[in-house]
Every structure is written in C-alpha cells, then in structure tokens.
Write a structure and sequence with these properties.
Layout: E1 7-9, E2 15-17, E3 20-28, E4 31-39, H1 50-55, E5 58-61, E6 66-69, E7 72-75, E8 86-91, E9 95-97, E10 101-109, E11 118-123, H2 125-131, E12 133-135, E13 138-140, E14 147-153, E15 159-161, E16 166-173, H3 205-210, H4 217-229, H5 268-283, E17 298-302, E18 308-312
Length: 347
C-alpha cells in the first residue's frame, strides 16, 4: 500500500485522511477488473467511484437497478444503512390450514427487508403455542417480495390464519454460512450416502442377517442403508408396539343392551400372571381403566413355550353384533370362527 496526501470529505462535511492506495482485483459478475483504489476507515465495504465507471465503460441503469459493464448486466440492490437484520413475517392472505395437513403459504416482512441476501425463517413461539401449529425453519431469498412459509397442522380441526398474523421471523444470514445439499456427504456418481457413519441398531441385526443369504454385496449394503434410514418404524422390543389416535374404530351393536358376563375367578396360581399382563398393557397404553357396562371375562391360554397368553372371552358379545357381510379368510386348521376372535399367529 502506498501513502497519499488526500483527505476524504464525508457526507456530513467532515474531513478524514485516506490510509493509502493500492492496486486490487475487483470481481463484478463473471469478470475480474484491476483498479487502483483508495483505502479509508469507513463503514461501507467499498464504494465504486466515477473513475472506475468511466475506465471500464460502465452504464448505470437506475430505473432498472442494473449495472452494465462491457456488455454484462449485473443486478444491483438498494441498501439502507439503517436496515434491520431481523424482521417479523406475517401471512399475506387469510388461509385455512386443513386438519392433519401441511401447506405452504405466502408471507411478507413488516419492513423494507434486506435485498440480495439470504434469510433464515424461524417460527414464532407464541404463535405455535396459541394455535397448535408448527412452522418449519427454512432458508429464503426475500428479494422475491414473497416469503414461502411451510405450516403443519397436527390438530383434528382446521385452523384459520388471518391476513397480517405474525407467524415467524426472518434473520439475515451470510451465504458462506449456508451449506447446500451438493456439499453434504457428496460421493462420486451423484449418489448421496445419508447413512454414512451411522450404525445399524442392535434390534435390526437379526432382520439384516436373516436376508444375507439372498443378497449380493451391493444389495446387502443398500439393504443396510434402508434399514438405518427407516429404523424408527421398527419395534425395538416386544413392548415397543406404537400408538396412534388418527383413526378411531366403532363396533355397531344396534339397540342391543350391554352384555355383562358373570365374573369368573382366576386360580390363585395364575392371578399374578394375569395381573402382570394387565399392568403391562396399561403401561403400553393398550388398555385403560373403564366404567363401561360391557364386561367380559379373562381367559389365560398356555402357549407352547410354557408362558401364558392373555385372552378375553368375547363369545357372549357375538349375539349383540350386526351381521358382517365381509367374510374373513380362514387359515390354519380352524373350523369354527367368531367375528370378534383375534388370532395370534405367533405367541
């Protein structure tokens, strides 16, 4: 850097000396330009002067916010020094989000948002607590004047979001801090191994090993990755059976009065087994305490391994059920079936 005896005159009329001058490379668009610049202690990252514009045959198209330099058009953006780095984002138009659904709606910032930069969308906690909706985090480019917002409604009822409702914030982020998908676990051939480095869970080893005889090396690796990717849908143990409230079933008994069987005692030797099964099913949310007028007795059936299977005697309930028009497929050696029988293939 070379010293200079020139003073900088600021917009307020104050005078400040330049630090020096130096030849630099300036990258604009797809080209690099060499130019001698002055260095000053100012808040702006850089200011292009008339000397540069004239030297490199530049045309400034103010009406289009564009700079034309040697035939190349470069998009320009207005930048206000007072611009905030974080804005609130509101719904543009009133929308209805259906129950158990996901949708993308249009949002807008509450001020002249930063242009030409990326923004990180983050949900408004108060909005989510009040409405029971989820808002996904995402990276957007606000210069589109239309901010896409991904919303999920996990409720059983639709939810109306009115125009102007604040549901998220948009924070300015630097492009170099964003890692795009093309740089995440990229491998040759355009394939992505998202499970690289992840171990196969212990509870899936038996499933994996049981299929090895029918798979070659490449198929075995793909099968392993598949098991890892969808490991959450497999039961970790006999007690991990899952639970959903998305569907409720009803049994049509018509106008038949409730059927209540007379209580039958379980032998003292089997009482502990029955109580243990009841507590186990309560813990797994299979059953819950009830005051229903319907009542059926417990039946313990001994399995081939010596343990006991917990069953319910539904035979008295059959007379209260509407006749089913759909015949179930018979299996095994069974000859008589009840429409409420539950057949366990494996004890």
């Amino acid at each position: 850097m070379n010293p200079v005896n020139i003073n900088l005159i600021t917009a307020t009329g104050d005078s400040a000396p330049f630090i020096g001058q130096i030849d630099v490379e300036i990258c604009l668009g797809n080209h690099i330009y060499h130019h001698n610049v002055l260095v000053a202690d100012i808040s702006n990252e850089g200011i292009i002067g008339m000397d540069f514009l004239v030297t490199h045959d530049c045309d400034v198209l103010l009406s289009q916010n564009k700079l034309k330099i040697k035939g190349e058009i470069i998009q320009c953006y207005h930048y206000a020094s007072s611009a905030k780095s974080c804005y609130r984002v509101a719904i543009q138009e009133t929308v209805d989000v259906p129950a158990n659904s996901e949708m993308i709606v249009s949002g807008e910032a509450d001020g002249p948002i930063f242009r030409g930069l990326a923004g990180l969308i983050e949900p408004n906690e108060k909005f989510m607590e009040k409405n029971g909706l989820l808002v996904a985090r995402s990276i957007v480019h606000p210069e589109m004047y239309n901010i896409p917002l991904r919303i999920i409604n996990l409720n059983k009822e639709p939810c109306t979001l009115y125009k102007g409702t604040i549901i998220a914030t948009c924070n300015k982020v630097d492009e170099e801090d964003i890692q795009t998908s093309e740089f995440v676990n990229s491998v040759a051939g355009g394939q992505t191994k998202v499970n690289k480095g992840r171990q196969l869970p212990d509870y899936l080893h038996e499933v994996f090993e049981s299929c090895q005889a029918n798979l070659d090396k490449d198929q075995s690796e793909k099968f392993r990755d598949l098991l890892i990717e969808y490991s959450s849908i497999f039961s970790k143990s006999s007690e991990d059976i899952g639970l959903t409230d998305l569907v409720e079933h009803t049994i049509n008994t018509g106008n038949h009065p409730p059927v209540r069987q007379r209580p039958r005692r379980i032998t003292l030797a089997r009482m502990k087994d029955a109580e243990a099964e009841i507590q186990k099913m309560v813990k797994q949310d299979i059953i819950e305490p009830s005051t229903s007028p319907w009542n059926s007795n417990i039946v313990l059936v001994k399995k081939s391994d010596g343990s006991w299977r917990f069953c319910i005697d539904f035979r008295a309930k059959h007379i209260a059920l509407a006749r089913s028009k759909q015949n179930g497929k018979t299996n095994g050696r069974g000859t008589v079936f009840g429409i409420m029988d539950q057949v366990t293939q494996k004890g």
